[in-house]
Design a protein that fits this description.
Elements: H1 3-16, H2 33-47, H3 58-63, H4 79-99, H5 112-124, H6 136-142, H7 162-174, H8 182-185, H9 196-210, H10 221-225, H11 237-249, H12 265-278, H13 288-295, E1 307-309, H14 316-324, E2 329-333, H15 342-350, E3 354-359, H16 371-388, E4 395-399, H17 406-426, E5 432-437, H18 439-447, E6 453-456, E7 475-485, E8 491-498, H19 513-518, H20 521-526, E9 536-541, E10 545-555, E11 564-567, E12 570-572, H21 577-588, H22 594-598, E13 605-612, E14 616-627, E15 630-644, H23 650-667, H24 672-685, H25 691-713
Parallel strand pairs: 1-2, 2-3, 3-4, 4-5, 5-6, 6-7
Antiparallel strand pairs: 1-8, 7-8, 9-10, 10-15, 11-12, 11-13, 13-14, 14-15
Length: 714
């Protein structure tokens, strides 16, 4: 807790608590936006702003008058004017404390200590005239969370760079503090971290050098058209300084070997390397395309890419349009409303195109992302890719399609990708993880080791994760514009630049899921066929019993430790050994050899569970198996037998139910062993101390005797 920040908060609440425009703030001694907003609101109240809102905008700027050691109250001032002036100084001193500068006390008087603190701030900001005068630009900087000293603690320790700070101070000194438009940009933080404010200030400086009448820090058509062409030996010193700054801000690997305003071999080599990295013509000459790629996420958004993505199903006509427009790769969705199909993939490949699989369900909002969602999405993506036949090392791009703040990445996005990474590892997935997201999100997920390839949504230039962040080192696709293509069939696409790191997929090996399902035990045994992988087939249904077979695609993972296993003709599990021995002994009295009956199913491996709700008993036998030559996922059939009983007539209803099952087995003796396994499992899992448990044991023991007779005859 900072005692002077606490004192500031207490003063604010005490002075302005009765003003309807002021909101009481926590008195916790912690600097944050809550305290800064309260200070700004207080200043606006003192300036007579009609609707104080805590945001330092044009009205606040216009109403603000310079504060300095010479701006003391005069003899002819009214008492209210003197009090208001003192309040402004309190606000100024409180802001200094919040910023980490010591004005010598919280006094309401602009003395030498306050002046010294202002001069230190001006020096830290790189201003050439550290005169101790607080103008509107400096006051706006004070009433922000921007830092003007190197951040060398906590999470910032490894992010700060003295050369970046030098750039920031240079921009403040030479551009921000010397032009009438600078208030709209504001002082650049001098914390050694390249961010959107530094990026915007570089564009602002470029516009000033270009002679643009109203520089605004936005790289538009006019800024692009006025960009100089710089090459080895160029003498446009101020432009070269900005080029050198922009190169370094895009990564230390593009360090021009110093900031000297000269276009030597160091600058040429850095420009060439950057151009090659971004997919530009690597000639070492910095023109409008190079400046655009350095300063705005899309770069030159009129560039023609060779990759695209779309929500439209690719037909032969559309494929012809893509080919005639020189596109080679198309991104399509794995799941959802706009998912690709096997027939579409055939069209894509037959037309000489390649495909990029993209996974997006709800990735357009923060609340979607969590560890749990990552687990689910990993399974979904693996299943979808496997069903379509994508082969080993295919990269699946998981989408983060919203303006994710850096804190959002920490709290939600990283846990989401951590879950995906763990799932892929645990499943021995043949696929790789990519990410579709803004620059910062891509880089952070890659740096965490959760992805191997980035598909960058740079077209969203306003995203906080794009502006002021370099292109990710592992970028494969850079989405820069939306265009409509004309040809055999018109289509709107997102135009993407390809780095060549991921050529896309040019073939798949479709998996015959239905064939695998219908060729396995339950379906074959009952003489039925599944029409879809998630179908349910009803085999038998009357008032007391329902028998059905269901199928599902699932991960080749899972913990079945809470269910009984049946393998090699025997039940497995130490906790069921005693009741199993008792059951065998009971049946042996009637000359029924249970082990002999169960051995008829020695090639079957099942997971069996039962569930009751007091009026019914459901037995489920799950038969899982891998698809031949494809171990990414497994298939499962579930045979369910549901006994419906009246709780007041447990034994009577169960006897009627089991009698129905016995009659069904007599008509279909081939399934006798399966039914026998089910009822034995129900006995083993029943709770003898309950009425239902006792009824199950009694009724089902009789059923086993009857079924065994049928099996013996068969």
């Amino acid at each position: 807790m900072d005692q002077m920040v606490l004192k500031t908060q207490q003063w604010l609440n005490g002075i302005y608590k009765d003003n309807s425009n002021y909101k009481i703030i926590p008195e916790d001694g912690a600097t944050g936006w809550t305290t800064i907003t309260a200070l700004t609101t207080a200043l606006q109240i003192e300036l007579g702003i009609s609707t104080p809102n805590g945001s330092f905008g044009p009205a606040t700027r216009s109403a603000f008058e310079n504060l300095s050691i010479d701006s003391q109250p005069q003899n002819d001032w009214s008492e209210s004017a003197i009090i208001s002036y003192q309040h402004k100084i309190f606000i100024l001193q409180g802001a200094l404390f919040c910023k980490g500068y010591n004005p010598g006390g919280f006094t309401g008087t602009f003395g030498t200590n306050t002046e010294a603190a202002i001069k230190q701030l001006q020096t830290d900001a790189g201003l050439s005239n550290a005169n101790g005068v607080v103008d509107s630009i400096l006051m706006k900087a004070l009433l922000s969370m921007d830092a003007f000293q190197m951040l060398t603690y906590g999470e910032y320790k490894d992010k700060c760079d003295q050369k970046i700070r030098t750039i920031q101070q240079y921009l403040n000194k030479n551009y921000i503090s010397n032009t009438s438009f600078s208030i709209d940009i504001g002082l650049v933080p001098c914390n050694g971290i390249y961010d959107r404010s530094t990026n915007k200030a570089l564009i602002y400086a470029l516009q000033i050098e270009e002679g643009i009448s109203t520089p605004n820090g936005v790289f538009g058509p006019s800024t692009k058209s006025k960009c100089p062409v710089l090459s080895l030996g160029s003498t446009k010193t101020k432009f070269i300084y900005l080029l050198q700054f922009a190169l370094y801000c895009n990564g230390k690997e593009f360090d021009p070997n110093g900031f000297d305003g000269g276009y030597g071999n160091g600058v040429k080599n850095a420009v060439t390397k950057f151009q090659s990295f971004c997919g530009l013509n690597a000639d070492g000459i910095a023109g409008s395309q190079t400046f655009a790629s350095l300063l705005v996420s899309t770069g030159d958004n009129t560039r023609k890419g060779t990759a695209c993505d779309c929500s439209t199903t690719i037909t032969d006509a559309i494929a012809a349009t893509l080919k005639s427009n020189k596109y080679e790769v198309v991104g399509r969705y794995l799941t959802g409303k706009f998912r690709m199909t096997s027939s579409e993939l055939k069209i894509i490949f037959d037309n000489g195109l390649r495909v990029i699989p993209i996974f997006e369900v709800g990735g357009y909002k923060l609340s979607y992302f969590s560890y749990e969602q990552g687990v689910f999405d990993a399974d979904s993506a693996i299943f979808a890719a496997a069903q379509l036949g994508f082969t080993k090392d295919t990269i699946i791009y998981f989408a983060v399609d919203f303006d994710a703040l850096d804190s959002d990445v920490t709290s939600n996005v990283l846990p989401y990708f951590k879950a995906i990474s763990e799932k892929f590892t645990n499943a021995n997935s043949i696929y790789k993880i990519g990410i579709y997201a803004p620059r910062n999100v891509c880089s952070r997920v890659q740096n965490a080791g959760y992805s191997c390839s980035s598909f960058v949504c740079d077209m969203s230039t306003g995203f906080s994760g794009n502006l002021g962040y370099p292109l990710p080192k592992d970028w494969a696709f850079d989405q820069i514009s939306t265009v409509t293509l004309h040809g055999n069939a018109d289509i709107e696409i997102d135009n993407n630049i390809s780095s060549g790191k991921n050529p896309g997929v040019n073939s798949v090996v479709p998996v015959d899921i239905l064939g695998a399902l219908n060729d396995n035990s339950f379906a074959k045994l009952f003489g039925v066929e599944f029409s879809t992988p998630d179908a349910e087939i009803e085999i038998f249904n009357n008032a007391f019993v329902k028998i059905a077979i269901g199928a599902a695609v699932k991960a080749a993972l899972g913990d079945d430790s809470k269910v009984i296993k049946f393998k090699g003709g025997e039940f497995d599990g130490a906790d069921i050994q005693t009741p199993l021995d008792n059951l065998k002994a009971s049946l042996n009295k009637d000359n029924i050899e249970l082990s002999t009956i169960l051995a008829k199913a020695k090639d079957m491996e099942l997971s069996i569970k039962t569930s009751t709700n007091g009026t019914s008993l459901k037995i489920e036998l799950e038969n899982s198996f891998n698809v031949p030559e494809h171990d990414t996922f497994s298939l499962s059939e579930t045979l369910s037998i549901e006994f419906r009983v009246d709780k007041d007539k447990l034994l009577e209803d169960l006897k009627l139910a089991t009698s129905s099952v016995v009659d069904f087995v007599k008509e279909n003796p081939a399934i006798g062993v399966i039914i026998c396994i089910a009822v034995v499992a129900a006995i083993l899992l029943a709770l003898p101390e309950t009425a239902l448990g006792a009824a199950i044991i009694s009724a089902f023991s009789e059923a086993i005797e009857a079924i065994s007779a049928v099996i013996a005859i068969a």
